[in-house]
Structures are given as C-alpha cells and as structure tokens.
Design a protein that fits this description.
Length: about 300
C-alpha cells in the first residue's frame, strides 16, 4: 500500500513547517562567520567547496578575509572537486589543512597522520596523502541482507539515494517512527534506513524502516515527485555540531555499496538532502563528508 497524495500533502506541509527531524534546522543559505586563524582555503575545504567557488559566491577578488566577516557558503554542486575519493590518494591543494582533509574524509587527524607516517601537522601543496578507507572489516549488514531477501525490491523504481542527518542527538527508528506518525504520516518513519549513533540505538546499527520492507515511497523530501523514487538513509545526530561516528560512516558506506552494487545493480544517483533543488535545508550538516561520498558514489 502506498501513501495517498492527500497524506503526502499533509506530510509536505508539515515538513515545510520544520516538523521532520532533519528539516528542523532548514535554511536556504549557510552563512559562516570567519574566526581567528581561518583561511579562505580552509573554510572552503571544511564545507566541501573549492576556494574559487567560495570567492565567486562572495564576490571576493582575492583570498583576504577578516575575523567576523560573514561568508555565504554556496551549495555543493557537480563542480565541487576539492576532495578525492576515500579510496584514492588525495592531492594537497592551496589552503588545505590536515584537519580539513581528515574531516572531509570522515576520519580523525590522528588516523590521517598514521596512514601517511606524518610526525607533524605540516603538509605542502602537491603532496599526496593516503586517506584510509572508512569501511572497516566488521559486516554491519547481515540483518539488512536477511530482511531484504524476503521482499521483492522495486529495482526499476529507485532512481536515487539521499542521505540525511536527524539534526538531533537522540532517537532511533521506534522514536522517530512514533514522532512521524503523530505528525500525520501514516506510513511512519520517513526514511527507509536509520543509522544509530550509540545513544538510543547501537553505534553504526542499521535499522530498517517499514518503507523499505514494504517498498513504499519515502517521506523524507519536500518534493512528492522525488519521494516516489528516492531511498532515504538517515544518520542519527546533528552534523552541524559534530561529525558522524566512524561506525556510522562504516555502516553508511557498507549500505551504499550494497544498495548500488548487489541490490539495485546500477549507479543510482547519490545526493545529500540539501543538494536537491527546492529542498531548502542544510541537511545532512556541514560535518557529513559529502564530497568524499560523491567521489565514491558518483
Ligand atoms: Zn534531510
């Protein structure tokens, strides 16, 4: 059974009001206030855009910025080239810092230094850095495979996979399902999959929503048309404030690899929620390594 357009319209208006977890922090543009020690390149790297894009968005002719200055952070588009794949070596660019590169790849500075035998934080332009893969050896998908083996996946229907953050630190599938039902979504949990952060469900635990087992349209996007063909994966947490955990990213990449490879058997379009036209949100947050995931899944 699918949701009716009427139910969806109700969902859409509620989402527009900001009642869906990830939409709570929605705003059209991200504004960043320059802090002491920031460089244009550093800010660009942290937000997964190039320094040139940042200059263009703010009509800057050079790299000079001042503390307290407000910068508009452009949405991430296909032109974003700053971050290489998590599988491939990364070439250091002007303005890069170890912290920025580590964050963009979802790893810690310590891991990045260990992977490259670095004894200090000094890096130079043109240097090649190895970025250790996020995927670890623990299989986090066993139960997802088992549940999916029992259903007929509507392979031809799914055109894209969209990643969200929940924008709050707490919650699990049961809690979000109840909240979404209270807000008028009769199919419950808006996402197909939810990845826990160790607070209300396991760290890296993948919970399967009824919209996946019943192969229903998502409730995670404002656009009805997009919801029809978009699988929604949500990571619990507010990634405007913190990074996703390493296990959450491992679970996410394992889930994505499996969905694109074994389940859908096609290069389904991958997007962060904010990258979809008309969605007006900052989801999945600036600390989600969106650029690295694009390098992996585009
Ligand atoms: Zn979202």
């Amino acid at each position: 059974m699918h949701v009716t357009r009427r139910e969806f319209t109700k969902q859409a208006s509620l989402i527009a009001l900001g009642s869906l977890a990830c939409a709570q922090l929605a705003k059209a543009n991200t504004i960043y206030t320059v802090r002491k020690g920031d460089t244009l390149g550093h800010i660009a790297q942290r937000h997964g855009v190039s320094a040139a894009e940042l200059r263009r968005a703010n009509r800057l002719s050079g790299d000079l910025i001042g503390v307290g200055q407000k910068l508009k952070i452009p949405g991430q588009g296909a032109a974003t080239t700053a971050v290489a794949s998590a599988r491939n070596p990364y070439l250091v660019q002007a303005g890069d810092t170890l912290g920025g590169i580590a964050r963009a790849h979802g790893i810690s500075v310590g891991e990045l230094k260990r992977a490259n035998n670095l004894s200090s934080d000094v890096i130079r332009i043109g240097q090649t850095l190895h970025t250790p893969a996020i995927v670890n050896s623990t299989d986090l998908l066993t139960h997802v495979r088992a549940a999916t083996a029992k259903i007929a996946v509507r392979r031809d229907n799914w055109q894209r996979i969209v990643v969200h953050h929940s924008a709050i630190k707490y919650g699990n599938a049961k809690k979000y399902d109840a909240a979404h039902r209270r807000r008028g979504m009769q199919n419950g949990l808006a996402y197909h999959f939810l990845i826990g952060n160790g607070i209300d469900s396991g760290d890296g635990e993948i919970e399967i929503g009824p919209r996946w087992t019943k192969q229903l349209l998502g409730g995670h996007l404002k656009s009805y048309q997009l919801n029809l063909s978009a699988i929604g994966i949500c990571l619990v947490g507010n990634f405007e404030q913190t990074q996703p955990s390493k296990k959450q990213l491992a679970a996410f990449t394992q889930l994505m690899d499996w969905l694109q490879g074994d389940v859908l058997k096609k290069n389904t379009q991958f997007a962060g929620h904010r990258e979809l036209k008309g969605e007006q949100t900052i989801c999945p947050g600036k600390y989600f390594p969106l650029a690295a995931m694009h390098a992996r899944y585009d």
